[in-house]
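On clarity, I found the account of how folds are encoded harder to follow than it need be. Since the whole study asks how a given chain folds, the encoding of that fold should be made plain. The format is easy to grasp once an entry is in front of the reader. For illustration, here is how one protein appears when written out as sequence plus structure tokens.
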Amino acid sequence: MKYAVALLFPLWMVSALAQTLQERDTPLDHLAGRWVMTGTIAGQEITHDLEAEWVLDGHYLYFHERARERDENGDPAYESQVYFGWDEAGERLVCLWLDITGGGGLVPDGFGYARPDGDRIPFVWGEGADSQIHNTFTYLRDEDAWAWRIDNVRQGEPSNFAQVVLNRVDLATLADEAGSPERQEILDAIAQLSAATAADGGGADAYGAMLTSGFSRWTIGSDAVEGRETWLAGIRDWFEQGWRVVDRQGRVIDLLVEDDRAFARRIVTETYAAPDGDRSPPATAALDEAWRRIDGQWLLHRVTVHPVME
């Protein structure tokens, strides 16, 4: 342990003294916020939602991008999580782009590099290789918007892959979304689902009435459960033995409603009461949920549970 402290201390000093990316006055200063992306990717018209924020004390800019278009399972057709940082040795920006198209992002070729040129940031992946990806970010200062152009370059010959524009979502739009009737319907459905597990709730039958027949649940670190009846069979004994949720604190982080589908991300902390009255320690998890409206009722279709370790 002494050796570990000795090794880490110099790294901590360098980190503390280094200028953060947020302090470097790059065009990325204008990317923080919430955006709607429209344009063409691989010949297809797209609309994506993107939210960017400074993280880790301003050393990195992070954004999460999700397509509004859905695949056959109702999941986003495209999703990425992207980090920008500063390459001190190369005196340039560095970008790590992770997405659902594959798991090869954490390799040397998975990093793109760029030196800002005015309001342009011409990132290149695969520097020096015959096959490269050029992704040029251009801040449109007069419009407070962004234009992105992606080209696949083979032996020096570029082929355009994507041209998109990012427009900022203003506070008025956010306020309208927050108060929309459809959003409130989803919040009411979440409350109804939660009420089924409370001490005076309706138990397994009331809980099951809020799930689609094709419901699935995956808790990270365990096997996925497919089908409403399979899930209810597993938890019915829990209800019938007298277990209940006696305290719940929740927060909705993100909520998107599209026609008869909705997608929610929320943080939930629950305390459980055993049949003998003993209470469990609070347990916290992050939930990614997909909801569907069937015959006018919102039902939970899929949930991924990410336990948060205290």
User: Anything to note?
Assistant: The first strand starts at residue 33 and ends at 41.
